[in-house]
Amino acid sequence: MGNCWSNDDINSGGDSRRPTLITTGKTPDLKYRRKSSHLSDFSSDSKHLFEKEPKIAAFNVRRFGKAKMQDKSVVEILVRIIRRYDVILIQEIVDVSEMAVHELLDKVNDSSSENDAKYELELSPRLGRNQVKEQYGFIYKMPRFKVKKSKVYDDPDDVFIREPFVVQFQSKSIKGADDITLIAVHIQPKSAVKEIDALVEVNNWVRNAFRTKHILILGDLNAGGSYVTNSDWSKIRLRNLKSNFHWLIPDHVDTTATNSIAAYDRIIAYNHTKELVVKASVFRYRIICLIKYDRYIYNCCVFYVNLRTNKGLTRCPKQFKFYLDCFIGRKNIRNILNKKMCKNFNIFEQSQRITV
Question: How many other CB atoms sit within 10 Å of the CB of residue 284?
């Protein structure tokens, strides 16, 4: 057995018990080994990395346009919500000039420091029939996510009032996938059963057009209340093909920010995409922000998924702090934790405490 201690470790005097070398022939050995710090659990390529799980969210900002951007309190809340996520789908963008959503993007980036990652926007064309049209907008954090391809669903049978908007993102942060494809949908309430059922065709089209198997369907599906009743579920293939489509937001979860109770907003994972998901949940910003009910401003809660990360992530900073505390007092701590790593950990720990 070779010597697993370096000369620096042996001579550093970091441990009160100096390791005793036993020489047997040409190969030195150790009488005992130093107890593992488990720091390697959080390391990759000789670098200590701490990275939060990627978060993908969707938010129906009711009739988002210039009027909302003129209200400073509304803008402040929207900025704080968006900065919680790596990718967030904004629905019901109605501003024809597209100035409001770009102004919102500027506000998001202006609220960050110089060293923070910047956000970018992937905007769909205006979709809908007659004069009632809206856009989807994906606001995403660079360089953690990059747009690889985007396209509006062809809708050959003209099923959808607002055709789904599909964006494929590249990311090195997702464990088990190099990219993930998001299908943004805002289902028309009166034709909810028909449109939700047709999402099976949309998913098949995306698989072929984007050559991908990692797909999430997300948005305001109006999949509850009076729009989709218990008797309607048997007519919806997206629900009945349970081995292929996994509904991550259950029926009993209230996704509204109004006085009604319904699971209108959903996230659906296709096939093995579910294995990338750590958890799915609803962020009730109205409660945390102490926002009074205002139907004009707020339409639904923010719903999101956490994805598995490729980096050496600990979901609980306290776990790492325990390992760190075990080293306090050792003289060779600087040989193990460099200043850059400690700085990264401090940023990571602080980010966990930020609440909207």
Answer: 14
Q: What is the pTM of this model?
A: 0.72
Whether 188 and 303 share a structural domain: yes
What b/e string do you get for 312-351 counting C-beta neighbours within 10 Å, with b at 16 or more? bbbeebeebeeebeeeeebeeeeeebeeebeebbeebeee
Domain limits for position 329: 36-51+311-356
- Per-residue pLDDT band at 22 (split at 50, 70, 90): very low
298 & 350 share domain: no
Catalytic positions: 134, 186
What is the three-state SS of 170-186? ECCCECCCCEEEEEEEE
Total domains, the chain:
3
Residues 115 and 259 in one domain: yes
Q: How far is CA 352 from its chain centroid?
A: 14
Work out whether strand 27-30 and strand 132-141 pair parallel, antiparallel, or are unpaired.
Answer: unpaired
Q: What percent of the chain has pLDDT over 90?
A: 42
